[in-house]
Amino acid sequence: MEELPLDQVRTLLAVVDEGTFDAAAAVLHVTPSAVSQRVKALEQRTGRVLLMRTKPVRATESGEVVVRFARQLARLERDARVELGLAAEQGPERVPVAVNADSLATWFLTALTRVPREPPVCFELHREDEAHTTALLREGQVMAAVTSSPHPVAGCTVRLLGLARYLAVATPEFATRHLTGSLAEDLAEAPTVVFDRRDELQDAFVRSLTRGRSGAGRIRHMVPASDGFRDAVVAGLGWGLVPEPQAVPLLRAGRLVELAPGRPLDVPLYWQQWKLDSPALSSVAEAVAAVAAEALLPRGGRAAPGLPGLA
User: Fold this and answer.
1) Which helix (H) or strand (E) holds 164?
2) Hey, which of 94, 193, 244, 246 has its CA 20 to 30 A from 225?
3) Are 37 and 28 spatial neighbours (Cβ–Cβ below 8 Å)?
């Protein structure tokens, strides 16, 4: 296969970003027919279907590869313009990052405050479950992601940030009412709070207690926000796995009790990013790694502060 014509690559990216051929044509200042011809020519050149002609259009798996290449190419072009002193009119750098809700609510924003202010950077955060943030990387929607996957997306590097510790907690009243016998059996029946339909943390915790025989109960209250999740547990709607930084103050105040002292659930978090020599991306990565080293557990864990009995 010969080289990929840059005008065709940029046109495919515009179609994916704008959602329709007509909208892409308006952005590129060409006709919709020209956009269609460029996309078809690129598909013929690659020998693959790159777009699903839906509304809005969606990139196929092969199309995602080209879209990711187009975004990386645009980033390299911008960085080159900056080094040549030609980017003054372009405004601040835009760095899109995918991050899970719990990290966003506990430590991630602190990392962003440590990114150097010069040159200026605009952060575009995409909130997604840590088990699914790599999909945004694969699609080329973000340059980096906090993820639970140690397997790098094609064209990306990966490094371990640390372990996010979760504690199984409930209100004292909830525990008295629902947890009267075997903890494993009771949690398999008791109401629970989950983030959304893809949240499997509570199931994983119960399976660790039941040796895989069962997951969490069928009564599930879905609360798709980190602070809202914590508040739902505090309100007594169900038990749940709450990030340690959010749980500890409530445990000390007696508003929550730990259901399984000594059995936290530690979730490894990784940083994946494009393999690009981008100063803006590098500065974000270093700030994230530094704050993660302070906020997360190292591999192997440590005792939770002020809570005897935790591993």
Assistant:
1) strand 156-170
2) 94
3) no
State both tokens at 3.
Answer: 């080289």
Token pair 């975004």 in the structure block, residue: 71
**pTM (2 d.p.):** 0.76
Count CA atoms within 13 Å of residue 231 on its CB side: 6
Q: Using alpha carbons, select from 65, 203, 207 the residue that is nearest to residue 138.
A: 65
Give phi and psi for 116, each to the nearest 5: -50, 140
Place of tokens 């639970």: 148
For the stretch 212-241, pLDDT in tens is 888 999 999 999 999 999 999 999 999 999
Q: In this predicted structure, what is the pLDDT of residue 189?
A: 94
295: number of Cβ within 10 Å:
18
Q: Could you identify the residue written with the tokens 């050149």?
A: 45
Omega cis (within 30) before 5? no
Tell me the one-letter amino acid at 310.
L
Q: What angle do CA 73, 75, 80 make, to 5 degrees?
A: 95
Is the pLDDT confidence value at 297 over 60? yes
Does residue 309 carry a pLDDT above 50? Answer: no
